[in-house]
Automatic annotation (TrEMBL):
Region feature (Disordered): 1-25
GO molecular function, one term: N-acylneuraminate cytidylyltransferase activity
InterPro entries: CMP-NeuNAc_synthase, Cytidylyl_trans, HAD-like_sf, HAD_sf, Nucleotide-diphossugar_trans
Family affiliation: Belongs to the CMP-NeuNAc synthase family.
EC category: transferase
BP GO terms, sorted: N-acetylneuraminate metabolic process
Keywords: Nucleotidyltransferase, Transferase
Name this polypeptide is given: N-acylneuraminate cytidylyltransferase
Natural source organism: Seriola lalandi dorsalis
Length: 437
């Protein structure tokens, strides 16, 4: 998770142009070596407005594939091609460079090939281009790594991703035509069982690799010596319409790529009281007392974390005596520690992290405003409520659907525990794999 928004070295995130990473160069037999990943993200989506930066499982949709591309260590540059200012901002925050596409390739009728060709003309040093689709959030680094090696090591001119489907296809007939339907891939007299049929390979739209020569001289994304890369069905998610969103979100939480750093080491959570556990509002009673409210679901979320041996520290501002009093009462009820922090929480919390002999990757942090930005960036897992300001959302690794005081803490707690569960399963699998040698 710590790799969520990591610009590549020597990149200040401001200047557009080739983003060259000091990583292992992929050298082809002809000596050329610049490989670029390009994600097309036009602002004028007809189905879902600004779909490419809509939050999916706490991350902008485009962020899932950008993280996989950057962490694959296979690309010399990673780009987002867009015509929209907000998409450009998100792309840069995730370590990508931006190709501002021209009006000619930003129309509803413009094809992906036309946009990729425009990018190639503007970047003549690029030898191999990987068109990654933003709507494939379960892409992992190893997928593009293994596919690219088919070009760099095996000499393919184009490689694209597929998934195996076991679906019988039938000819469509128009009503009233009198025509009868017939199967395309089925002998009805010998209908096979699923386990006796290999199925068919279908494009899943995750990515398309092509050489410069194929794109510019032959006008093709798929051609020459063609190869396919088969992905498992659980990773083949393609979001086209709004109804796909809740289904995709559950799939991503289970099968998505969350970064290089595994979250199983999270042992400590810092949580702001104001704006996270509370709505950030203070109520005045008839008698003149200050009051705030806490959602019981959030309190249960803290108990869930403690039950999984995650220490929880509630944070209050030295300038906010009301939330301090509330935090102390909650701490007594749930067995948490309360800590006062200054205007820059990192200065106070780094001492706690060091005292407990932890690293920031072992820490989860929940904040809700500008003073939390440094801690949100440092923590292995970090989150903000759904109503947090943009400056905090851009720094967080997870953005909750719920708002402060109304279930956001519970949501983040569930996210932390889900990642711990995934990490434990991976550790178990790693032990099995290692024991087989």
């Amino acid at each position: 998770m710590a790799s969520r928004k990591r610009g590549l070295p020597a990149d200040n995130g401001e200047q557009d142009g080739p983003l060259v990473a000091p990583k292992q160069q992929q050298i082809r037999a002809d000596g050329k070596g610049h490989t670029a990943a390009v994600i097309l993200a036009r602002g004028g989506s007809k189905g879902i407005p600004l779909k490419n930066i809509k939050m999916l499982a706490g991350v902008p949709l485009i962020g899932w594939v950008l993280r996989a591309a950057v962490d694959s260590d296979m690309f010399d540059s990673v780009w987002v091609s867009t015509d929209h200012d907000e998409i450009e901002k998100v792309a840069k925050s995730w370590g990508a460079k931006v190709h501002r596409r021209s009006a000619e390739v930003s129309r509803d009728s413009s094809s992906s090939l036309e946009t990729i060709q425009e990018f190639a003309r503007l970047n003549p040093d690029v030898d191999v281009i990987c068109h990654i689709q933003a709507t494939s959030p379960c892409l992992h680094p190893h997928h593009v790594k293994e596919a690219l090696e088919m070009i760099t090591l095996q000499g393919f001119d184009s490689v694209f991703s597929v998934v195996r489907r076991h679906q019988f296809r039938w000819k469509e007939v128009k009503k009233g035509s009198g025509e009868m339907t017939k199967p395309f891939n089925l002998d009805t007299a010998n209908r096979p069982r699923r386990q006796d049929w290999d199925g068919e390979l279908c494009e899943n739209g995750s990515f398309y690799f092509a050489t410069r020569d194929l794109l510019m001289n032959k006008g093709l994304m798929q051609g020459g010596k063609i190869g396919y890369y088969e992905m498992l069905p659980e990773y083949s998610v393609d979001i086209d319409v709004d109804i796909d969103w809740p289904v995709a979100e559950q799939r991503v939480l289970r099968y998505g790529y969350f970064g290089r750093d595994t979250p199983e080491v999270v042992r400590l959570m810092f949580c702001n009281v104001s704006g996270c556990l509370t709505e950030g509002r203070i109520f005045l009673s008839v008698s003149g007392e200050d009051m705030v409210s806490v959602n019981t679901r959030d309190a249960m979320g803290i108990r869930m974390l403690k039950g999984e041996e995650v220490e929880v520290v509630l944070l209050t501002s030295r300038e906010d005596p009301v939330t301090k009093s509330l935090a102390e009462k909650l701490a007594k009820r749930m067995g948490c520690e309360v800590m006062e922090v200054g205007e820059e929480p990192q200065n106070d919390l780094k001492l706690v992290v060091e005292k407990k002999k932890l690293e920031w990757k072992d820490v989860a942090y929940m904040g809700n405003d500008k003073p939390d930005v440094n801690c949100l960036n440092l923590a292995g897992l970090s989150a903000v409520p759904g109503d947090a300001p943009t400056v905090a959302i851009n720094a967080a690794k997870y953005t909750c659907h719920k708002v402060g005081g109304l279930g956001a803490v519970r949501e983040f707690a569930e996210h932390i525990l889900l990642q711990k569960q995934k990490a434990k399963a991976q550790m178990k699998q790693d032990r099995i794999d290692n024991s087989s040698f």
